[in-house]
Amino acid sequence: MTEITILGRGGQGGVTLAKLIATAFFKSGKFTQAFGVYAAERSGAPLQAFVRISDEQITNYNQISEPDHVIVLDRALLGPLTLDGMKSGGWIVLNTPESADALVEISAGRRVATVGATRLALQHGLGTKTVPIVNTTMFGAVARVLGLTLDDVRTALGEAKLTGANLESATTAFEQVRMLELRPAPEPILNTDEPAIVATNGAILGREQVELQASETPRIRTGSWATRRPERRELTPPCNVACPAGNDVHAFLRAMHEENFDGALSILLRTSPFPGVCGRVCPAPCMQNCNRRFLDGEVNVRELERFAAEHGTRPSAPDAPSRDEIVAVIGSGPAGLSAAYQLAKLGYPVTLFEAGRELGGLLRTGIPPYRLPREVLDNEISYILAHGVCDSRGHRIDASSLRRLSQEYAAVVVASGLQLEQTMELRTDGADVVLNGLEFLNRTRSRALELDGAKVVVVGGGNTAIDAARSALRAGATTVHILYRRTRNKMPAISEEVDAAIEEGVVLDELVAPMQLRSDALGPLLTCVRMRLGEPDESGRRRPIPETTEDAYFDVRCDRVVLALGQSADSSILNGSQPPGNIALTGFGGCPIFSCGDFANNEGTVSAAIGSGRMTASRVHHALTGSDLLSPASPTIASYDILHPALFPRMREHHGGVVPPALRRRNFREVHLGFEGEAGIRQVVEEAGRCCSCGVCNGCDRCAMHCPENIMGSQACGHSYDPVYCKGCGVCVTECPRGVLEMVAIEKE
Amino acid sequence: MSRMLLTGNYAAGKVLALAGEANRGARGCASGAYPITPQTEIIEVLSDTQFTKGRIVPVESEHSAMGVCIGAALAGARAFTASSSNGLAYMTENVFCAGYYRLPIVLIAVNRTLGPPWNIWVDQGDSLTLRDAPWLQFYSDSHQDLVDTILMAFRVAEDHRILLPSIVAMDGFIISHMQMPVEIPDQSQVDRFLPLCDMPHRLRAESPSTIGGLTWPNETEKQRRDIQSAMERVPAVLREAADSFESVFGRRPDEAVVPFDTEGAETVLIASGTMAQTLRGVIRERRKLGEKIGMLRIKMFRPFPRREVLAAIGGAKRIGVIDRNHSPGSGGIFWQEVAATLQPKHEALVQNYIMGIGGGDVRPAALNGVIDDLTRRSSATDPIWKEVAA
After folding, report:
1. Do β-strands A111-115 and A178-180 pair in parallel, antiparallel, or remain unpaired?
2. Is the peptide bond before A373 cis (omega within 30 degrees of 0)?
3. pLDDT recorded at residue A567
4. Which of A227, A273, A675, A729 could cysteine-pair with A130, CB 3.0–4.6 Å?
5. Domain count for chain A
6. For the CA atoms of B10, B13, B15, B16, what is the dihedral angle to 10 degrees?
7. Smallest Cβ distance to B178: which of A33, A39, A199?
8. Residue A111 falls within a domain, yes or no?
9. Distance CA B119, CA B121 (A)
């Protein structure tokens, strides 16, 4: 009886090779037996198959432990234990491009035949580039070695319906196989540190087996077999992409979770001087885009930012400007202050021009103190000024003074915001009934307007409208209505602010537009018309159209009408030319002039203004020194579908305290209290810990823990692993909760 | 008849298809089919078969697979299916049902270890769990024996003196996935060997009746005793079937027990499945050395062939029963049966060896170790677990 052992890997076709050999001998009248050892049929797992050939009926049904011949489909599988028990004088038939002479160390006492079956299989298109199937090619070589003919090869392949390329490749191998005859040697010289091929038992039942599991996983070299390997992806969390200020939200949350409030604040201060402001008034696109919102609610970044601003220590500002070029910044709103701050951090002396008496722009005049207390704003402005920013107040810069500035300064940044309020003609008969939104906010804030017992109507759907409505309540109004010509879900205002206004008693009248204001004996009357939504306009929103039915018109009794319809830039400072985005104009002597913030782009949020200020500072620096611009990256966003939701325990959202509507609606004290006290710290750490770290490794080491080969290094070293042992199983990718890794194909040459 | 190289699964699938097709002149054939390693290929072969009158019904579980077979058999079709391991365990409720309905269904059990821990390799524990069901049980030891036994199983099961379903078991992977030469009969031969399936109590639309309703204890007891009587008639019916088989196919199939070299043997080993094949080679070698040693392969486990076992053992002094199965708290299940058969009437020492559990590779060296132990033994002890290769 002749016994043959085949060593291969799951997917290489070793069992089929056994059957082909058996078929060839069966056809010549022999008794045969062909079988494999089936196990976890993981692609690439070591596999054995056996062939028995005999002149008599075969009665052995056990596996072969002392083979006459050994066929090896993957060179990496060859080791002393794989040849253990092999009888002397037999053939080792090996898939390798090496010549048989090169394998003298394993040929002791045996005969060796080699054939480059992988290359031949690829040339004949057998399998794929990542998974070449070598069994039929090896069959050609084995047939030659075992004394079969090419006819036998053709017949056996034909029985298995393997013709065409399989037959061609087998024929080539039959012709090319290199055979090294027996070399006598007293003792085989073998590399004894070769690891054993041992099947691992995945079962864990009972103490003994648990202990078995805890021991080192035996390592098996992968050789040429792996078809895929894990690779770290370059992904950016959606919060970071969404933040208009450019904050590294992800790194900030990680520092917060580590209770490193100083570090967290420093991360924010790299990109924004206003964490205390943004921690209160930012619409938080980071939260709107947070992947966690699909699990159990977005991470409360806004209130964490506020906490960092209140509890972190700000790094000290640089002593004195390090550069000579002085830069003028016109306007002290968030964009101007952000530009001044970033320029100062770059070492420039900065002069900040403000037409009014106080710095802060819309942060001071537009946002009521119950949302943004003045001392928070003052503190952050002081920190900016401490960086070497000089301020010049009470100077309104116009086109001619801008020309003068361009002679005196190395560069000028125009961040004068939106100075022109949009209004509408309501044909009032002169009564002091109609006010514009910003003016109304100014007057209520400074208590210059008493509204005791008044009925107030606010027109508009932006944040100014909501602020005006809530300020009206605080100034004593009995009823406050907001008229909005579209529906609630189309309002540009921050949704939470709309909720808060309604909680306080503001009435929102959707799909209503004012038409005409008149007065009768009882006082002013505002005629309104009901609207409906028609086809989308150029902004993509459905255009409001007046209803034409008879009952579409109605009167509202009111004492005040506040028009909060938005603002636009006053471009007269640039001699009427349209504010040209962020592109530099050239003033006298080549002085570059940049526009910045709402004046340039009308984005309308604090965070966008902060981002614009930072980008403008970078452009100034580039214009003056040739340094690299901050490039607006186009990152690949780590979207929700790369996360593995089942691997994130559900966690409750945490929110800071809020003053109840009844206690807040009649005063200008801050509504939101933030996280407070010891419990607040615990909540903050937990809330920051809800961050999924989308697409970014946070060192959780699940990949390393679950790697069946135990070869993944700790993530401190960046997902390094030993490719010699990686089988490409993909468990690390499946076990990564946050989609950091992906499998990529390995193409064979 | 053609001689082919086939795996056990393909051979079983082809023979089931031949048997099913052979009933095309009557009520046809049907199978409820559900896959489980290592028997899935049987279902695949059946699903690829075009029957003149028959259907393979894919279902959502083993329980339903047997349900389809029950329904088909009650309607008079030749019904068959296959399963393994936990699949058989899940099928069990309906397995009992089929037996107590006296439906001549044939079930191929590709023996696989019951989990957990998860294991796909051979262990007879799955089908032996059904030993107390009213089913015949056969354990094949080779590809040819498997083919022959399936045909015999239909013949005996459908015989009006028996009318009991039948399990034909094979070693998972060792037979199911091993390719060996095997003779597959032609359709015309199978047609001659298997009479058309004629279920006397099949349901008929023209004379409506129910089956399996509530019975009193005395009626139930009678039904059980009828089944016992039918079981007792099996050896004679099996012999008749073997005679008929020989006349149709020209060779005699293995029957309930297969003695080998038992003539004058002082030591007799008892085994089943492919272990018995490997053991045969070992016994042959030791006989050549002059040892008075023989073996007995038990092929039919239900009904347990007491008379045949006693006759084959003769005057042996030492009996070693090798089990690839284990009943926790007792020992090997074949050993229990052999011991119960011998003890009142026989003086021999009976020792149980448990080996190859969970699919361990039983090599000749391990079997020689068992024989060495048995021949030196002066008294029996508790079942001995013999280690084999992983």
Report:
1. antiparallel
2. no
3. 83
4. A227
5. 4
6. 170
7. A33
8. yes
9. 6
Pairing of strands B318-323, B267-271: parallel
Interface test with A, best of B2, B3, B4, B5 (most A CBs within 10 A): B5
One domain, residues A85 and A170: yes
B79 touches chain A (CB under 8 A): no
Q: B210, B226, B249: which is the final residue of a domain?
A: B249
Q: B40 and B157: one domain?
A: yes
A63 touching B (Cβ < 8 Å)? yes
Residue of A nearest to B284 (CA): A59
Helix (H) or strand (E) holding B271: strand B267-271
Q: What is the CATH number of the domain that holds B7?
A: 3.40.50.970
A526, A513 in Cβ contact below 8 A? no
- The H-or-E segment that residue A255 falls in is helix A249-257
| Residue found under tokens 């001044």 | A340
CATH number at A44 reads 3.40.920.10
User: A558 and A575 share a domain?
Assistant: no
Q: Over the stretch A403-426, which tens digit does the pLDDT of each residue have?
A: 888 889 999 999 988 888 888 877
Banded pLDDT at A208 (limits 50, 70, 90): very low
Indicate the pairing of strand B2-7 with strand B257-260.
Answer: unpaired
Q: Under an 8 A CB cutoff, do A38 and B173 touch?
A: yes
Judged by a CB distance cut-off of 8 A, whether residue B177 touches chain A is yes
Domain that holds residue B141: 2-249
The pLDDT-based confidence of A540 (bands split at 50, 70, 90) is: confident
**Pick from B249, B274, B296: which residue ends a domain?**
B249
Rounded Cα distance, B143 and B153, in Å: 15
Tell me if A10 sits within 8 A of A44, measured CB to CB.
yes
A148, A265: one domain? no
Domain that holds residue A600: 327-419+569-625
Whether chain B has a CB inside 8 Å of the CB on A19: the answer is yes
Mark whether B366 and B290 lie in a shared domain.
yes
Please tell me whether residues B14 and B92 are part of one structural domain: yes
Same domain, B225 and B86: yes
Residues 6+ apart with CB under 8 A from B134: B96, B99, B100, B102, B164, B165, B227, B231
| A176 inside domain | yes
Q: Name the 3-class secondary structure at A47.
A: strand
Secondary structure, 3-state, A161-197: CCCCHHHHHHHHHHHHCEEECCECCCCCCCCCCCCCC
- Of the partner residues B118, B119, B281, the one whose CB lies closest to the CB of residue A60: B281
What tokens does B294 get? 């023989």
- Cα dihedral sign, A159-A161-A166-A167: positive
H or E stretch including B294?
A: strand B293-298
* Residue given tokens 């068959």 in the structure block: B80
Could you identify the residue written with the tokens 């050896």? Answer: B235
Residues B111 and B105: their CA atoms lie apart, in Å, by 18
Q: What is the pTM assigned to this prediction?
A: 0.65
Per residue, the 3-state secondary structure of A679-724, as one string, reads: HHHHHHHHHHHCCCCCCCCCCCCHHHHHCCCCCECCHHHCCCECCC
